[in-house]
Amino acid sequence: MSTVDEIAPIVVHDSARASRRERLRLVLRSRTFLVGAVIVGFWVFCALFGPAVVPDDPYADDILNRLQPPSSEHWFGTDRLGRDVFSRVIVGARDILIVATLATVLGTLLGTALGLVTGYFRGLTDEAIMRVVDAFLAIPIVVIGLLALTALGPSRVTVVLVIGIVFTPIIARTVRAAVLSERELEYVEAARLRNEHAPYVLFGEILPNVLGPVLVEFTVRLGYAIFAIATLSFLGFGIQPPAPDWGLQIFEHYGLLGAGDWWPTLFPALAIATLVVGVNLIADGLTQAFER
Amino acid sequence: MGRFILRRIALALITLWLLSVIVFVACEVMPGDVARSILGPTAAPETVEALNEELGTDRPVVVRYADWMAGIFQGDLGESHAFRRPVDEMIWPALWNSAKLAFLAFLLVVPLGIVGGVIAALHEGRAADRAISVGGLSAAAIPDFVWAVVTILVFGIWLEILPVTAQAPPGASFLTRVEYLILPALCLVFVLFGYLARMARAGTTEALDSDYTRTAVLKGLPRRTVIRRHVLRNSLLPTIAVVATQTGYLIGGLVAIELIFNYPGIGRLIVRAADQKDFPLLQGTVLVIGVVYLLATLVADLAYAYLNPRIRYGAAM
Amino acid sequence: MDARQHRLDEVRRERSEVENHLIDELSAGKISRREFVRRGTVLGLSLPALSFIASACGGDDDDGAATGATETTGGAQAGGTLRTALISPAGALDPLTVGDEGGLATLGQSGEYLAWSDDELMLQPRIAESWEPNEDGSVWTFAIRQGVTFHDGTPLTAEDVVATMEFHLGNESNALSALGGVLSAGNTRLVDETTVEFTLDAPNGNFPYLVSSDNYNLIILPKTYRGDWEKTFIGTGPWKLETYTPEEGVTYVKNPDYWDTSRMPLADKNEVKYYEDEQARVIALQGGEVDVVSNFSVAGGGALLDDPSFTIIELRASQHRKVHMRTDMEPFTDKRVRQAMALAVDRQALVDGLFEGRADLGNDSPFAPVFPSTDPSVPQREQDLDQARQLLEAAGMGDGFNVKLESWQGFEIPDLAVLLQNAWEEIGVTVELQITDDGAYYGDFTYGSSRWLDSPFGITDWGHRGVPNVFLSSALGSKGPWNAPHFKNPTFDQLLSDYVAAFDLDAQRAAAKQIQELLLEETPAIFPYFYFHLAATKNVEGVEPTGMGHFDLSQAGFTT
Lengths: 292, 317, 560
Description:
The structure holds three protein chains of three kinds. Chain A is mainly α. Chain A has helices at 3-7, 20-29, 31-53, 85-121, 123-137, 141-152, 156-182, 186-193, 198-234, 246-253, 263-290.
């Protein structure tokens, strides 16, 4: 049982329960959280309204105007097929946010369920499942992604499934750790004494009290998901052309850096970086709030 | 302590076995006719069928798995279909290369990360803390392949002070070989620094806030001594955690960096194996990196337990 | 003038019917001097004889084609170690199975062929000194050079040539992709110590190409060869193996006993380094890790093309993309629909955008402009959106239709797919792209288990060949194993066998003209372009790459 990994994401078993409202207030006052929220909010806006507000059709090629540097006409320049990089970066937010969010939600739902069950029931099933989890964790996410996408063929759906399933054991771990400390507490005993059924105890009593750590895990994993998806696109798996996916754009253009055409690579890279930073700042803000 | 070690090892072995099953099954699911991938597009269908029979690719999964496991216990990982060489012959050099790069990266980033984290913790909330935390976070948010391209461009092509590939020519001296590894190691430093510093910072903060430290300071011990004796030790613990988990990334997960720097590491080998549907090579490599990860976490757990007596006696499970 | 004319007449008398015909074409100005020399070498005429005849007839000089190998201005120095970046071989280095660029270029360094198909598609004699067809081109006799030794000291004889051919034919070698249906096992006969006779399955005017470096598996091996080429890299070439590090590269030293003293290597050592990734190769040249990049694409090599410190070698070639439409499946059963799809494409824009002009326009047939047998008088199809829409209307598809285009993520294929998708949108055809990886697209390379051969609509990449035979018979012939459009046209098959049998350039062109016109009419596939082969060097002269992917460094040396 790897004790080490439990420390890695800082999850706190809080004994002094601040009320939810107080926690919310703390979160909203945290500067870290706010900065992160603004950044992520910007990208969410792009994801929702991007196609309506961008100056050019992100799919329209203009091959004779390929690789034009940034100008007043094309703020981020044009890519190698003559498409407007600015429009593609803005519209690209939609794909990655949807895929990353869905994947993380999937992983969180499955992982929480798995963590609740194994944490509560312990025993042999718990041990067995944790071993399987450990086995999965031994392989880098890129490798698993690669294998799965080679087997199943690259598509958005496959990417969501693969990343979601890869995250399940990781999230399960964290939830399990939280459940382990919760189950010893009085209110759980009380529920059992009342002869409540296990599902009720699990989902009705314990779950609401571990939501904090779950939420933090969700945001941390979201950051990793964005990263993983970009890397898989970069390696040529995952999202297909002509989608304006950021990782795919970098994949298609990074070779041109040597030729001095930096803009089709830099702007998608900055987009990925700012989004990941934003998500991580939100995660940090939430962690701080739940630490009290 | 002895029982703890034995228990950990036993669990690791079980996990290892499960890993082998997962790896084998994953390769089963992949499309691709084995004999065809060996013989190429021009071979006649009859020849392909004959080779499949000879290789026994139509036997039941369980039988083939048993065969493979039996081979492993004898030290035989099979033969690569595409390259017609024993799999272990291809794996060990690649593994060694990845290990060299990982070692250099850790050598650079661990001290930097610890120092950064401790400084950030000591100046909590102030400028230095913000700079280190946000800087580290931003650097880590940039994908490793972007760092690779940027550093090659800056240091290799514009400034021309470092080589643009990672593998030194044969016969090069030790120092030259290190020189070739600096650029990829630098990329890894950018990627890992943030996480490491954050861990060190958290550990330091926790130690600084702990009862032990407060008592020591109240008792009149100079802060510096307290930091040295207690805090540093505590910031070391999360570092071990990071080293262990990141070993998994560095040995096998560095696919993009190995490709761009043309470095014959094990990540690159996995991609080649997957590309060619070369199952023996694929199974062998994935199993090996899994083993490396499990070993790293085992060693880390043992080190952790040694340093932190609370864990040793089963308090947290 | 008279004396020369007299000598020319004598020469003519000694030559066969076919050869005389070729000379006639030259005198009549029907072919250029370059093409005359090229066809002449295929027929087995020696270069000096050809030069003499050409000058006697006052043939045309070359039409403007892309520059060939770097001219050796004599600035190349002896000595040093040449370092080349080559794509990693995709499998074992076994002459029987090599099927990729990294493998073939490696075979060609230390191994040698009967003839070398050079950067201008001319055949240079190597292990074969000369060759000759019989009257109808069904039997070819090759004279094997004397004084050639393998790297282990054993002398080469005609027996080794026969043994090598039989070895490949009897072991389902990859060489069968070119020799299948042309030469069968048992038909390579040892006439004497220095002569080999090939009896073909059917007359074939381009046979010598099919046993040249174009058929890259056919390096001549000792008759005692049983396998394990990777251990010795045995061959008769100008470079000898020094060390081989799998995954990393090969170091060769010059072969002091090489038979061709006029082509003894200038450099002392030849280091070939393997790189998986094209970017890594380009970066290596920029960073000074290597001196030569043997093959790069416009998309990946922008940095090299724009920088005058690199010398770019550009060769016209026949490598192309084929956009097939299954003639036996909706929506492409009506040829008007296929024509419409072809007419929607702006080929010049593709060439300019994807290759910066470094490609020839394709005219929907495998007859690339670089082949001498291509008839240049066939009009080039151009974009015509109105006509395309009319044809769709006439075929009952006036409201457009939806179709899925399949291919894989390599080279410029994804970009081509996107550009074509947009072009077809203009005529009301909505194309959905399914671009996977090459394993998924090619599958098992047989009908029924390969998207390439089963899909109604797909893009396939075809590498360079010195003659279009494979493109025509395997990929468009009714019985061809690689006929993705499922094109079954008896007229085409007949014209095809006429073309294959002809070795008189006139007859080849006549058959080609008819084939080209038939394919424009039927349009089983769109051939948008034939792109050039690009290589780059820095401070090195005398590098001779070929469209196939080989590169000859025997005459290469540093300039500074």
